[in-house]
Design a protein that fits this description.
The structure is a single chain. With 423 residues, the protein is mainly beta. The chain has a single domain, classed as Porin. Helices cover 5% and strands 45% of the residues. The chain contains 3 helices and 17 strands.
Amino acid sequence: MKLTTAKIASLLILVLSFSKLSAQQQMGYTDYNINGIQPFKINSGNNTIQIGTIFSSYIDLRQYPAGATPDLTKNLFKLKDARLDVKGQVGKDYEYNVQLDFAQWGTAYQPDGGPLLDANITYKGLKKLFNIKFGYSKVPFSLNSLVEHFESPYWERPQITKGDFMSRRDVGIKLSRSDWSGRLRSAIGVYSGVGETILGGTNDPSGGFEFIGRVEASYPENHNEEMIDVQGLTTPNISVGANIRYSNRILPSGATFLPGETGAMLNSSASAMELKVINGQKMIWGVDASFEYRNFSLQAETILLHATPHDSADAHLNGLPKSFTGGNFNAGGWYVQGNYYVKPAKLILSARYDQMNANDLVDGVSNHWACGVSYMLKGYNSMLKASFDQNLQPQSNLKYGGESINTNKWHNEFRIGWQLVID
């Protein structure tokens, strides 16, 4: 697969310009409808500033299969969120967002974020063309990644979307368009490609960038950003999306990637098999769909990776000859999730299955099933969440399967906690 930077840029421009859209709303999924606790607002003429917060905490308990050495450091009370979220509007053309998470203070890298979650400005003055967002924010890729975590009945995203397989945030510039009352959206962006580690203030020695694009549609109404049908829609609603991202990073001889840049999917930041970035060409694409009707909702998504390492002796090729690999390797995964909102009881019931193959040249896959129960004290603003996740094929028990390059040894995980959202 030979794709030049120019070809990828042209492809992403086509994603954005395939139809005559107007710049009305942005992809990024912060225009949720929560009737409850409202943020603090200050208005002065055409200028507005909104200050909100997100607090959440849970207890985490893990069980291990026979023969595994338990990691008791994972049994803990965890402060997941302690966020300060400041959004502002200057006139009709400028918006900005700064979001800090004090729960992550002192950590240099987290796969799903860090101490800084948003620091960006948006220009909306090109009314008939597109909005322009510049700075640090979520990248326009993956439905599950874009939906806010506090609208989910789970404390953690599926393995394929939680931030180890690919970056969820980065610094760059994004052009986005929307029309048909938000039912149709598209976005393209150019990013550092370093992901969350760009907060260290430098690119890696390759000096490469990443190109990302997404298009999505929802019918008959705009419910692109929702996971749970709390409204009880009387007409079936379906949303579909497709996205693509491309990078070509070539490290100079003897150079290495930044600490933490390659990810932590295999529970080892030093693993040569990590693939959040690779020394070579990498293409990731995915499709997703969401369905809502009468308090029932269903989401499904698949994400696939195709990569060509620059070095024929790259560890990702697992020491296999080029005659067998073609110089390439593939990875990817999928999930499906079903939810039901029991309105009289204010309960969200959910079940999820996800699977991932970290490398098609290595034996095994990783898969989990999970279930969750959430009680809405006051909508999403105040919600109790309990979830159970089972690692179906732990690495310590490979005779039943498992991903042989994944060091996850736990079998069952229980999490229960509370979230408060004023945003």
